[in-house]
């Protein structure tokens, strides 16, 4: 007979037309245009006139042919990085508006149009939870890999699985990733004691396996059976397949544990996810202390705008540019550097037989990382003026001196974690990408406007966290990169047209800010309605949660 489990009973279960075919010229159509006859008089004059007409028509057709085929002489859309030319054309218009009093920072979000939401995690979990923790069915050990927010996802899902199985969760082990290269342990990034305490009424968490349990496996954690769980497995799968092995052996490992639990699970299970992510996981004290100082400094730097600032998650590091297989304006040197970076991090993956890399197609499909220049163009077009304080969250930007210069030109009040802190303050975090990312995460979390440029776990978790904090609205600009690619590939576009397109994009982000979770969506990005209630409902359930 299986031990007690907590599987809930609820269930959450313009194509562009083809271009016209090219015109075909039928050669020889005019070969008899000049009439025959060898007479000199009227026939000779007619022959001469016919020859002149023939030459004129031939010339016109040749010119028409050139015009018709001129588009084919231009490089295919997206194959050339034209944003610098667009910047040169639009910069005078931006300068002319530098002293404009209106700043989109103050009016970016129309919060009146969004229904206010409040966190109500505890009431959701308590609907089907137990009044006290039942006897544990054994110990669950998981290994989290990837960067900061991939680890965060694994941790939160591990809490859910432990809750489902009535297992005791051992503080997750962090795998040293070949890309992130961060040797930090759980306690270096997250507050271990707070995590254990916050979950005490829902999941039992221990720092390490008890000595007597470890001795049963010859004091070697590798001797504990490692269950290969398929990605996106259902809650029922864990009850049916994992629970019997847990009860039989007293301890199981699941490594790796990346994306091993389906997004679509019962609502009370989603509640445990939110409890773990939004309440139990907070950064370690050294990270919180410096991050809070950074937020305070950004607010002080933004006093002219009521302490409001813009944060940008800029994914233009060497590895990201290399992985995207996009081309910019660095020529052969850039291609050589990207080839080296791809081989260093993904040995042979991009050289497999049959793999075709199409940089232009990638750009037009919105898959290329936005450059700092492109982010600046977008924001200035949206109406953020040069008095806007901007925080850039990023790793080591590829050729930073070159690519960051135009962004600083458009936004002089620009900060990064390197400029916002002293070398002494930042020194303990150097060489630890996840701890540095935690600093960026916190500053972005508290900005008035957050801009995501390339997707990934960092913006997805931030958008959800911001919705949880800001009454259900993400306050996030998520640009249409396919549309941007077309606009950036149009160096002759008028400033008025470009600005109108950008303002439309900002309005679209405002509308999408309060989006509810779809059945297949992630509660980490869309916490409504599984982990938040409309304000009238929240008042009846519980008071607003603190962080």
TrEMBL record:
InterPro entries according to UniProt: FucosylTrfase_pln (IPR024709), GDP-Fuc_O-FucTrfase (IPR019378)
Keyword Glycosyltransferase: yes
Organism superkingdom: Eukaryota
Lineage, broadest ranks: Eukaryota, Viridiplantae, Streptophyta, Embryophyta, Tracheophyta
Annotated keywords: Carbohydrate metabolism, Fucose metabolism, Glycosyltransferase, Transferase
Protein's organism: Gossypium hirsutum (Upland cotton)
Official protein name in the record: O-fucosyltransferase family protein
Stretches for region Disordered: 1-45
Gly residues bias (residue ranges): 34-44
Transmembrane segments annotated in the record for this chain: none
Record-stated family: Belongs to the glycosyltransferase GT106 family.
Coiled coil, from the record: none
PANTHER family linked to this entry: O-FUCOSYLTRANSFERASE 9 (PTHR31288:SF22), O-FUCOSYLTRANSFERASE FAMILY PROTEIN (PTHR31288)
């Amino acid at each position: 007979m299986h031990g007690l489990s907590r599987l809930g009973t609820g269930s959450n279960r313009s194509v562009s037309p083809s271009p016209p075919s090219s015109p075909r010229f039928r050669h020889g159509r005019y070969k008899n245009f000049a009439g025959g006859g060898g007479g000199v008089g009227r026939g000779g004059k007619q022959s001469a006139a016919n020859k002149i007409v023939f030459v004129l028509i031939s010339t016109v057709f040749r010119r028409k042919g050139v015009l018709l085929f001129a588009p084919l002489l231009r490089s295919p859309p997206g194959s050339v990085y034209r944003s610098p030319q667009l910047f040169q054309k639009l910069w005078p218009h931006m300068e002319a508006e530098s002293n404009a009093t209106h700043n989109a920072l103050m009016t970016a979000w129309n919060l009146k149009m969004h229904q206010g939401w409040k966190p109500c995690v505890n009431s959701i979990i308590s609907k089907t939870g137990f009044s006290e923790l039942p006897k544990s069915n054994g110990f669950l050990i998981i290994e989290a890999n990837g960067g900061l927010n991939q680890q965060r996802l694994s941790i939160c899902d591990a809490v859910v699985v432990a809750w489902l199985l009535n297992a005791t969760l051992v503080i997750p082990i962090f795998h040293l990733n070949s890309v992130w290269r961060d040797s930090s342990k759980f306690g270096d990034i997250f507050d271990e004691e707070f995590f254990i305490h916050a979950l005490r009424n829902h999941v039992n968490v221990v720092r390490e396996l008890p000595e007597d349990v470890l001795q049963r496996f010859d004091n070697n954690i590798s001797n504990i059976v490692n269950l290969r769980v398929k990605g996106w497995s259902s809650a029922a799968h864990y009850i049916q397949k994992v629970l019997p092995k847990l009860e039989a052996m007293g301890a199981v490992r699941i490594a790796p544990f990346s994306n091993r639990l389906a997004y679509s699970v019962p609502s009370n299970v989603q509640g445990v996810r939110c409890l773990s992510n939004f309440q139990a996981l907070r950064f370690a004290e050294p990270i919180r202390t410096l991050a809070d100082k950074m937020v305070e400094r950004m607010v002080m730097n933004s006093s002219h705008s009521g302490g409001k600032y813009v944060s940008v998650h800029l994914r233009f590091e060497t590895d990201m540019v290399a992985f995207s297989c996009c081309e910019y304006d660095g020529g052969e040197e850039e291609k050589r550097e990207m080839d080296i970076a791809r081989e260093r991090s993904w040995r042979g993956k991009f050289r497999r037989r049959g793999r075709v890399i199409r940089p232009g197609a990638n750009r037009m499909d919105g898959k290329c990382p936005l450059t700092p220049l492109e982010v600046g163009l977008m924001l200035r077009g949206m109406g953020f003026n040069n008095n806007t304080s901007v925080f850039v969250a990023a790793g080591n930007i590829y050729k930073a001196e070159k690519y960051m210069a135009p962004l600083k030109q458009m936004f002089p009040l620009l900060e990064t974690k390197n400029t916002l802190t002293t070398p002494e303050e930042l020194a303990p975090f150097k060489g630890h990408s996840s701890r540095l990312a935690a600093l960026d995460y916190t500053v972005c979390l508290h900005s008035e406007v957050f801009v995501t440029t390339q997707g990934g776990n960092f913006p997805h978790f931030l958008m959800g966290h911001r919705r949880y904090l800001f009454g259900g609205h993400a306050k996030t600009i998520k640009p249409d990169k396919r549309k941007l690619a077309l606009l950036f590939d149009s160096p002759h576009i008028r400033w008025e047209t470009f600005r109108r397109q950008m303002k439309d994009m900002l309005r679209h982000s405002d509308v999408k800010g309060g989006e509810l979770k779809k059945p297949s969506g992630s509660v980490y990005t869309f916490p409504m309605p599984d982990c938040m209630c409309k304000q009238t409902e929240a008042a009846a359930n519980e008071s607003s949660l603190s962080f």
